[in-house]
Each structure stands twice: as structure tokens, then as C-alpha cells.
Design brief:
The complex is a heterodimer of chains A (345) and B (262). With 345 residues, chain A is α+β, with helices and mostly antiparallel strands. Chain A has 9 helices and 21 strands. In chain A, helix 5 (166-177) links the parallel strand 8 (151-155) and strand 9. Chain A is globular and about 70 Å long. Chain B is globular, with a radius of gyration of 22 Å. In chain B, 37% of the residues are buried. Chain B starts with 12 loop residues before the first helix and ends in an 8-residue tail after the last helix. Chain B has helices at 13-32, 36-43, 46-79, 84-97, 100-111, 118-123, 132-157, 161-168, 173-184, 186-202, 205-210, 221-231, 233-254. Chain B has 262 residues and is mainly alpha-helical. Classes of the chains: A alpha+beta (345), B mainly alpha (262).
């Protein structure tokens, strides 16, 4: 395992980004479209030559003022949102492609073990056009890892998938990225939270925030990060297959790709826009309801972000006025279970 | 169930059917004139066999040369970002629109005894004009653009992401080309090769201008047919039908129906 150091300058697009990824660490790059995230990945992979780039993997300089290592000699694998499986090869040959190129002993055996690792053994003889989007992306992941890369780059790997296949792929990616040096570009705050140790927020070609994913996303310091994330994160333990209890003994019922292990650490996330506020205890049962104290109000355009004992809620300014929300007021929160994602931690 | 085609007005049937008749009728007319009784002896006469054998040998060789130099040309045209490519492209396509006889003249002043290169080759004792080599050169000259154009189109139609991902998996440029890029454009490459072969097989103008018409040396099937037409029309018809059959076989081999290109 090796670290990754990157400094990319593309003055034509106003990009100037410098960051490190520790050995074995996964870092998420988030930011609006067109701010240079994919440029950075292409520069690291060697698919783009820019005026001023420095890329170092461990002790090895890949790109520098006088260095240019060809893409095939970098040991940097790239997984994009299109799986790009070679259509003329079957699944097994696709996965064996990397080991064959690098002259590994018995590429077929390496392919078989990665197919087994990712639960794809039954698909080995299939052609890419016979796979679903989620399956194809898992095969692409196996193919990338079978090349034994020092660094794995993921460019919105789940962006092109239909919603039901996302949680399963996210889980697989999380498993294989553990203890790997990896960089993931994503628009989904959950990817950053679940997959990345650290999140770097980019806007206008500059790093505007960086830190542990939970901190960056729960306390966004930029309008973009707030819009992207600003998610509510609840830490606690699972008390049911889809229920998380936080440290204040509040229970939250949510949706999950798989049943939680009761008693194990778990996490719930939901958007502030999913939280409704009420003066009186709301009627209707399949909702998460609790009472709290307003700790702060922040006006943003036509909406108010209200902090109720640490839970953020976005309501329209009109609704805020009608509810007479002011610091110290007692208020009821409600939240549909379908708006809450719960995860094992 | 069938899809209702909304941009196929009925009147288009008339010109379409007329066009089809225009293509098929001449073939029918020719087949009707074939003297089947003598067909075998006509196509196996000494001069016919010599022409057929020469045609197949030269067309195969020029097709091989087309692939050898045309594939790299198509790769440059499709992949290079150099401005030079835009300047060069019209010249590569020129033989496509040039009358073949003009191509033959141009070749004569390049490889002929007093040509640009020919005069130096002459010193080395190499004579190209009016030899079998000249036939191959003439055929290659006219057939090359067919391969380049179809392959360039196929290359531009493929997602460059495949070759990029292959590089990140550790494949060097030669391996990317042979294991990913070319297999992806295989149908285009085959189509281009067949078109080149067909064009080489039918080549007449440039060949007769640059290579002449010497039996067994430079007289391929098209000049043979042209000459026979004067003296023995039945032989010309029989040989024409032979070329048609070769063309049909070639098309059938390439367009085997129901086959996944991969």
C-alpha cells in the first residue's frame, strides 16, 4: 500500500488543486459539475496532459516537471460511471485482462478469485451485453482490482445505475476499498459518508473544505457542500431491522438495503428538507415524531434552516413565521421513514 | 406487431422499386444471354484461367497491402489531434473520386521508366511499369481509400473509453491496439477489406494505363472481358458472370446473417 500526492494546475479552466491521500485511505472528491474533479482523475491516470501536474505514488513520481510515466505503467486503475467492459470478451476474460497485461502468472486464476470475491462466479462465461448495469459495474470493479493497482480511482461509479442496484454496489465497493488507497468522485453524500474516510470539497477549481467526511457533510462550510449534503447524521445502535436509536434514546425508523444487526452500531441519514415541523403533535402513525427545542434559525433566500436539538430542518420562510419559530421554542418534528436511510457502521 | 413508420410515405415505393429494377435488370439481362452449354469451356479457356488467376492473385496482394498501410492511416486520421490530418485527408480520399485512368497516368509518371521514382529504380535494374507489380500498385492506389474510409468511420464510432481503460489496466499502446481497438472495429475492418478487394478485382482504367494488358502478366479479368467483347462476346458474358459470382460469394461471406459481430 502506498500514498498518493497530487497537485494539478489547469489555468485554462482555473483549476489549482493540491491534496494527499494517505496509504490505505479513501478520499471523496465532491463539488459542482465542471469544477475539475474528473480532470484531476484523468491527470492522475495519465489520460490527460496538463501544463503543470505533479503526481506521486509512494516514492514513485508519475508526473512531474521532467517525468511522464505512461498510463499503462502507472498501476492506477480507473472505474468510471460507464463500466466499459470490453464487448468482445466474456466476463472472465475482461477480469483477466489486467493480469495478462502485467504478465502475472496464471491470469485466469486471478480473474476467478476476484470473480469469487465479488460474487460474480456464475457470470464468468457471460458477455457484457448479457449483464445488468449493476452486474456490469461489479465486473468492472473486479477487472480494475485484478490488475493489482497501487491506487484506485472511481469517477461517479454509481451515477449511471438505477436506484435499486446502488446500495448493493456501494456495499461491495466499501468492502473492497477498505485498506486501499483510493479516490472517489461523487455527487452522493452517502458515497462520501459510507465509502470515504475523508472528503474534499472542490468549487471553482479550488479546495474549499476538507476533513473527515462526517464533519464536512454535517457541518458544510460552503453553499455547495450544504446543498449537496447538509444531511442529518444520527449515530447510534440498531434496535430493529430498520431502526436506529441515538444517544438521546430517540428511535428512528428508516429504509435499508439490508436488515441491520440488532445491537450493532448504526447510522441514519436524512435530508433537512424531509423534516416537517409542527406546533402540535402531528397525527398519523408511520412517521418518526419527536419533540425538541429550537436552537437556531438561519435564513437562506425563501427558506429557513432550523436547528432543533441538532437536527436540521428546512422549511419555507412563510411556514417558519406561521409556526412562530424562534430560539428556545418547543416544537414537534416529523419525518417519513421512506426519507431516512439507515446503515450498519 | 410492427412499428408504424411515420416517415415512409407510400409514393417512395415507386422510385425505390424503380431503383431496385435498375440494379437487378442488367444482371438479369446478362444472365439471360449466357450460353450455358459452353459456359464451362469458356471460363476455363487458357486466357480466361490466366486472367482469373492473375486477378485473384493481384487483388489479394493489393488488399493485403491496403490493410498493412491503410489501418495505420485510418488510426492516424481517427485519433490524431494534429491539424496536419485535416490537410492530408482530402489527398487520401482523392483516388476515390479521381477517374482511374487519371490515376494510371499519375502512377506512370511516378513509377514509369522516366517517372519520379521510376528513373532511379531503373538505374537499380528495377522496372515496374507494365509488370505484375504495376497491376498491384494500380489496384492498391484505387482500393486504399475504401479501407481507410470505412475503418476511420468505425474507429470514430467507438467509445475511446475502452482503449483508455485498457491502458489503465496495464496494456501498452500496441496491446491496446491489437487486443481492444481493432477487435472493437472488426466489422468495420472486415467491411473495408472486402470493399478494397472488390475494388481491386474490378480495377480497369488505372491498370490498363499503367500496367498494360499482357496475357498472364498484367491482363486481369476486366481487361480480358473488355478485349473478349470485341472478338468473342459469349466469352465476355461468361467471364462477367464469373466476376458477379465472385462478388456474390464475397458479400455472402461478409454478411452472414444472424451473426453477432462479437
Amino acid at each position: 500500500m502506498v500514498s498518493l500526492q497530487v497537485h494539478v494546475v489547469d489555468s485554462a479552466r482555473g483549476v489549482d488543486l493540491e491534496f494527499d491521500v494517505e496509504s490505505g485511505e479513501t478520499v471523496a472528491l465532491v463539488g459542482p459539475n465542471g469544477t475539475g474533479k474528473s480532470t484531476v482523475l484523468a491527470a492522475i491516470a495519465g489520460l490527460l496532459k496538463l501544463e503543470q501536474v505533479r503526481v506521486q505514488v509512494g516514492d514513485r513520481e508519475l508526473v512531474g516537471p521532467k517525468t511522464w510515466v505512461a498510463p499503462h505503467e502507472r498501476s492506477v486503475a480507473l472505474l468510471t460511471q460507464a463500466s466499459l467492459l470490453f464487448p468482445h470478451l466474456d466476463v472472465r476474460a475482461n477480469v483477466a485482462f489486467g493480469p495478462t497485461c502485467t504478465g502475472a502468472n496464471n491470469p485466469g486464476a486471478i480473474a476467478d478469485s476476484w470473480l469469487a470475491e465479488l460474487g460474480l462466479t456464475e457470470l464468468a462465461a457471460r458477455r457484457p451485453f448479457e449483464l445488468s448495469g449493476g452486474q456490469a459495474q461489479r465486473v468492472a470493479l473486479a477487472r480494475a482490482l485484478a490488475a493489482a493497482p497501487d491506487v484506485v480511482l472511481l469517477d461517479e461509479p454509481m451515477a449511471a445505475l438505477d436506484a435499486p442496484s446502488v446500495p448493493q454496489l456501494r456495499k461491495v465497493i466499501g468492502r473492497v476499498l477498505a485498506n486501499r488507497t483510493a479516490l472517489i468522485v461523487t455527487h452522493d453524500p452517502l458515497d462520501a459518508l459510507v465509502l470515504a474516510d475523508r472528503t474534499i470539497v472542490i468549487d471553482d477549481g479550488r479546495i474549499i473544505d476538507s476533513g473527515p467526511s462526517r464533519d464536512v457533510l454535517s457541518h458544510p462550510r460552503s453553499p455547495f457542500a450544504a446543498a449537496l449534503a447538509g444531511v442529518n447524521l444520527i449515530d447510534g445502535v440498531a434496535t430493529g431491522p430498520k431502526t436506529v436509536r441515538d444517544n438521546d434514546q430517540h428511535e428512528l425508523l428508516g429504509e435499508s438495503a439490508e436488515e441491520l444487526v440488532i445491537g450493532a452500531p448504526a447510522m441514519a441519514t436524512f435530508s433537512p428538507t424531509a423534516v416537517a415541523l409542527h406546533r402540535q403533535k402531528p397525527e398519523g402513525s408511520p412517521r418518526n415524531v419527536r419533540r425538541g427545542t429550537v436552537r437556531g434559525i438561519e435564513q437562506r433566500g425563501g427558506t429557513c434552516r432550523v436547528d432543533v436539538d441538532g437536527v436540521l430542518a428546512d422549511v419555507t420562510s412563510a411556514a417558519a413565521a406561521e409556526l412562530q419559530i424562534e430560539p428556545g421554542a418547543q416544537i414537534w418534528l416529523s419525518l417519513k421513514a421512506t426519507e431516512v436511510s439507515v446503515y450498519s457502521r | 406487431m410492427s412499428i408504424n413508420q411515420v416517415d415512409l410515405p407510400r409514393w417512395t415505393m415507386i422510385p425505390a422499386v424503380a431503383g431496385l429494377a435498375f440494379v437487378i435488370l442488367p444482371l438479369v439481362a446478362m444472365v439471360l444471354r449466357v450460353d450455358w452449354g459452353d459456359f464451362g469451356s469458356l471460363v476455363t479457356s487458357e486466357s480466361s484461367l490466366a486472367a482469373l488467376s492473375l486477378s485473384l492473385r493481384t487483388a489479394s496482394m493489393s488488399t493485403a497491402i491496403c490493410v498493412l498501410i491503410g489501418v495505420p492511416m485510418a488510426l492516424f486520421l481517427a485519433r490524431s489531434s494534429s491539424r496536419l490530418v485535416d490537410v492530408v485527408r482530402p489527398f487520401i480520399l482523392l483516388p476515390l473520386v479521381l477517374p482511374p485512368v487519371v490515376g494510371g497516368i499519375a502512377l506512370l509518371y511516378t513509377f514509369g521508366r522516366r517517372g519520379l521514382l521510376g528513373q532511379h529504380l531503373e538505374v537499380l535494374g528495377i522496372q515496374i511499369a507494365f509488370s505484375t507489380a504495376a497491376v498491384v500498385i494500380a489496384q492498391t492506389f484505387v482500393a486504399l481509400p475504401f479501407l481507410v474510409v470505412s475503418l476511420e468511420g468505425a474507429l470514430r464510432g467507438t467509445d475511446p473509453g475502452y482503449s483508455r481503460v485498457a491502458a489503465t489496466l496495464g496494456a501498452n499502446p500496441s496491446r491496446v491496439l491489437t487486443k481492444v481497438t481493432l477487435p472493437l472495429v472488426w466489422p468495420g475492418l472486415v467491411a473495408g477489406t472486402v470493399l478494397s478487394f472488390a475494388r481491386a478485382l474490378g480495377e480497369f482504367g488505372a491498370t490498363i494505363t499503367f500496367a498494360g494488358s499482357l496475357q498472364g502478366v498484367t491482363r486481369t479479368l476486366p481487361p480480358e472481358i473488355y478485349l473478349q467483347r470485341e472478338t468473342d462476346p459469349q466469352a465476355a458474358i461468361a467471364l462477367s458472370l464469373l466476376l458477379v459470382m465472385v462478388a456474390v460469394v464475397v458479400i455472402a461471406v461478409v454478411r452472414r446473417p444472424g451473426r453477432n459481430p462479437w
